[in-house]
Amino acid sequence: MVQDTQERTRRDPILAQIRTLDEADRRKVIKTKARRARILEGYVGHTIGVFNGFGYSNVYVTKEMVGRQLGSVSPRVKPSAQTRFMSISVRKMRMVSDLVVGMPVAKALDVLNFTPRIAAYHLAKTLKAAVANKLSVEGTAHLDAEHLVVSRIETGPAPTAKRIRYRSMGRVYRIRKRFCHLSVYLDIDERKVQETEARVETKGDKAKTPTRKPTQKKAVVKKTPKKKAAMKSRKKATAKKNVTKKTAAKKTKATSGTKTAKSEKKA
After folding, report:
1. Sign of torsion, CA 114 118 123 124?
2. In CATH, what is the architecture of 81-197?
3. How confident is the model at residue 101 (pLDDT cuts 50, 70, 90)?
4. Is CATH 3.40.50.2300 the right assignment for the domain spanning 7-73?
């Protein structure tokens, strides 16, 4: 076991760089892509830049990390959504993906909806899936689709399907059907998140402090039973007067009719 560890330390390029830095009394970030490399005791006190698939993330090595792999210490940057084996060439997909990189998600979808290419349809579909995945992971309590930005889009070649086409005079032409892999990376725009939080706070303050004065309700005066009885008696008296007036008018009409009939007979 001791010999194996000694041979490992001799072959380890990271440890060799650390020793040269210690001899020169310098401090420097050591970049590496060996994510499966084990952390040795000689790494303690140095910063190592581990490749995460997108860039190098700096990791300060402590005694607790000894024996672990570098990949377990620095997490890999995973895409928000992937679409594999798409029936379109890499060149055609990159022509559309370059239009959208760096845009907010809403603006990117607007651009893709009005781009007359089949690659735009596939990219918009993958972008919607990336937004849904990001919101499900981060949560929708303080995050909306408006806060997301398309940080990076990777397009890589996939295996090509080879077909043949028969031509005249016994010839055969080769047909290559190109495929590609698509991966979309999304980031959170912290400025927009802070702006929305500030708006929510201002709205809450306005709701707490009422702008309009509360209207004063008019006091309802309840009628006593004596007043109610007086009102009823008045209504009955007015009703009797109306009835007597109607009967007198009918009598006058009847008498005037009989007088006119008698005068006609005498004539």
Report:
1. positive
2. Alpha-Beta Complex (3.90)
3. very high
4. no
